Amino acid sequence: MTVSGREKAMVAITGMVILYGGLGLVSKHRLDAWQMKRDAYRQASQHLVLERTLIGQRTQWEKNYSGMKDLMRIFPAEQPVDTYWLGVMDTAATKNGLNIAKRQVGAEKPVGDVFEIAIECKEWEGSLDALVHFLYDLESAGVMLDMRQMFMRPHPTNRGLLRGTFTLHCAYMREKPAAAVALPAGSGARNAKMMKKKSL
Description:
Elements: H1 5-56, H2 58-69, E1 74-75, H3 82-96, E2 99-105, E3 109-111, E4 114-126, H4 128-139, E5 144-154, E6 162-174, H5 187-199
Parallel strand pairs: 1-6
Antiparallel strand pairs: 2-4, 3-4, 4-6, 5-6
C-alpha cells in the first residue's frame, strides 16, 4: 500500500495539531497554577507589611492601652457585678429623664483578660434630648460601656417621645484569686500531732 504525499502531509498536520493542543493544555494548567501562587504571594506580602506596621506601632499601642487600662474597673474575683453596672445605667437614665422599664442582665463572658456582661433593655422611653444626654453621660462616665445595638420608634400615643430597646455591653477586669499557700509535705500530720499533745 502506497501513501501519497497528500496523505503524509495530512498525517503530519494532524500530529502537529495534537502536539500543540497538548502543549497548550499543559501550559494553561501551569499558567493557572503560577497565577494562583502569584496571588498567594501578593496576599502574604500585604499581610507581612501590615504586621510589620503594627509591630512598628507597638509603643503607641502600649501607650493607648496604659491610658485605657486606668478606665477599666477591676472587681474581686467572686464579686457579682450586675448591681454595679445597673446602678451606673440607672443613674444616667434618671439624671436625664429617660425611663427604662424592662431590663435583663446577661451572663458574664471572658474576652481574653477582660470580662463582659450585656444589659438588654427591652423597653425605654423618653425624648430625643434625654436619650442624647443619657448616651453622652454613659460615654463620659470613665467606665467601659459600649452601646452596640439600639432601636427606636415614635411613641404611639405621646408625640415628642421615643420608645425602643438597646443592648449595653459593660467591660471590666477581675482580680486574680489568691493562690493557696502550699505547706511542706508532712506538715499537716505534724501539726495535727502537736495539737493533740497540747490538748492532753
